[in-house]
Amino acid sequence: HCASSALSFSHASLSHAAGSVNRGTLGFRKLLVVTVATKETDGFRRFLSSAKHFNYTVKVLGRGQKWSGGDYTTAPGGGQKVRLLKAALEEMKDEEKIILFIDSYDVVFASGPKELLKKFQQAQHKVVFSSESLIWPDRHLEDKHPHVREGNRFLGSGGFIGYLPNIRELVSDWTGEDAESDQLFFTKIYIDPAKKKSINITLDNKCRLFQNLHGALDEVVLKFEDARVRARNVLYDTLPVIVHGNGPTKLQINYLGNYIPNTWTFETGCTVCHDDLHPLTESEYPLVVIGIFIQQPSPFVTVFFERLLKLQYPKNRLKLVIHSQEAHHEPQVSSFLQDHGSLYQDARLVTDTDGAASRNLVFDMCRKDEDCDYFFSLDIEVVLKNENTLKILIEQNLPIVAPMITRDGRLWSNFWGALSADGYYARSEDYVDIVQGRRVGVWNVPYVSKVFLVKADVLRSELTDNELFTSHILDPDMAFCHNARNKGIFMYVSNMHSFGRILSTENYQTSHLHNDLWQIFENPLDWQERYIHENYTHIMKDNAVSPVHQPCPDVYWFPIFSDVACNHLVEEMEHFGKWSGGGVVDNRIQGGYENVPTIDIHMNQINFEKEWHKFLVEYIAPITEKMYPGYYTKCSSPLNFVVRYKPDEQPLLTPHHDASTFTINVALNSKGTDYQGGGCRFLRYDCSVEAPRKGWALMHPGRLTHYHEGLPTTAGVRYIAVSFVDP
């Protein structure tokens, strides 16, 4: 006997009759769905979920048995299904029973038994097979198929429905091997006029009951109805009850399964995103191995590690494996491990492999570690803003799940909605809606990268190959996803929460001391978070208490730089080291003569002119326009420089006008801590700003009214950043 089990999702309502056929009635209870599933795959669970939604009664054959029906996605096979079906039918006694025999790993129900039975009845035959436009596996039999006026001409063995005696007769002659073709067996019966007539077989030519996707992808679209979703065949204008991703259309059934029958609808949003969750309790946090991959010079690595520390998860349940190929980032990695490594159950650095090999190695560490429950893969360019990301992903209880992250302001993300014929990116119909958050849910997708969580059990049972990332033709990330797809492991991306973003690593210079300062163009949001004062944004909010002060007439004082920005700018200038002599002859400026010389370094000397101008346009111009209404500036600034004041070098600046429409003067260090004295006095108003705060800017008119002097620095070293801005 074959192993079998029946799963009944029937409720009392199913006892109602579903209309009559000939002399009898087709009651719901007469219908039995029979399928073969030797393994509980993700696809099988999806099939059962859709069956349960419509209250089908399902009998599963072959559970726990070894599959010996061949890999019939690429070559004929599937005979084992016929053998199991034949044995199961022999035990069934109710001759009025209607059997629906279908595949399950790549099948979803789009409607319920009532509609299915009604359409079966309308076909006016005892057995109805699904149809296909392509002949398989023996194209030499094409001429033997009856011609049809409209619709598909060829039989598909992935789904058929019929009365028990007729189905029994259909499979009675099966004596084949498990790896022989079920499709060929049924096709030969169908093209034999005597058998076809005796069993009373027809094809569902126009896909009213069954939709096979192979050869029909252009014909099938989603049809959104009230709080439910159907597949619609636009060629025949039909609404099939069963959708089958036969042959090479697994990704398309995955896409349709994100919606059908009601997984996601416009009215309800995601209906399954809170099903089968794995709630975390304080006492039993799973052990997670986090693999961190540094494979190219990347900006904001220090910030990455600061965020990692803030991840809301018990550190004694985390093991960190940092893989770095970049000597450039060695100081940041070492500093993190030295200062914080002991907080984790384990933290180590691996440097002896590269590319695919490094990922294979680190994934294998989790696979072989019997304590490892999950592997969390995290690339250094990921900006994980959501501190609960790891908890959220674990609670989703999925084999592979990624948090959706995007490149700021772009449609570029860490998942693909579809694949092209050669396995690269293709845009799915819903990709933009998902990326932009118009459709929110947990989506079955063909590709995830940069950051994702994998169940360790999946690595030990399905993805056992320790070279998952290795391929002669595919990049490592694509090779991994290719291997997961081939094993029937579903990969998901969640946009249920806002998780973070991906940094751009293009054009990342490594020639400076603090290379992140130069990222204002490539990663403007991260630059702002790192370098702009946390209170700056309050200035532009009309309803907020403004942090802008006016210590002297038409002199505005406001927060602009973070402490880190000030430190980095000073350190960058001292690292460059070529301070001017403070004389009136200055070949760096037009005309070569400086009326009021300072000891300084110009921004263009460290190749920071473009970045500084961008900073002025983005962050200074809006405040100028707010404080001096009616004045608009392009911040074309002939002079941008950092000045150094020291008692034994240049302690002060004599009274002068600036050669500017307005001047910006940013304090780069702290009075009392770094220096004594200093400040700025406006002579016309006899008004001084003597304790400039670090990171705060003074903005004042340059010519005519605001004659001013730099007050003496009496101890330490004072640094300021200055811009003379003209329209």
Kindly describe this structure:
The chain has about 725 residues and is an alpha+beta fold. Helix content is about 25%, strand content about 25%. It is built from 18 helices and 43 strands. An eight-stranded mixed sheet has the order 19-18-17-20-28-22-29-26, with helices on both faces. A seven-stranded mixed sheet has the order 1-5-4-6-9-8-10, with helices on both faces. Helix 2 crosses helix 4 (about 165-170) and helix 8 (about 300-310) packs parallel to helix 9. The longest helix is centred in the C-terminal third of the chain and has 19 residues, at about 610-625. The model is unreliable at about 10-25 (pLDDT under 50).
Which ranges are low-confidence, i.e. pLDDT below 50, for 5 or more consecutive residues? 10-24
Query: What would you call the shape?
Result: elongated
Number of helices: 18
- Approximate helicity band: 10-25%
Distance between the termini: 89 Å
Mean pLDDT: 93
The biggest beta sheet, please?
Answer: 8 strands, mixed
- Main-sheet strand order equals 19-18-17-20-28-22-29-26
Q: Rounded to an integer, what's the Rg over CA atoms?
A: 35 Å
Q: SS-based structural class? A: alpha+beta
Total strands: 43
EC number: 1.14.11.4
Protein name: Procollagen-lysine,2-oxoglutarate 5-dioxygenase 1
Catalytic activity: L-lysyl-[collagen] + 2-oxoglutarate + O2 = (5R)-5-hydroxy-L-lysyl-[collagen] + succinate + CO2
Pfam families: 2OG-FeII_Oxy (PF03171), GT_PLOD (PF25342), OGFOD2-like (PF25238)
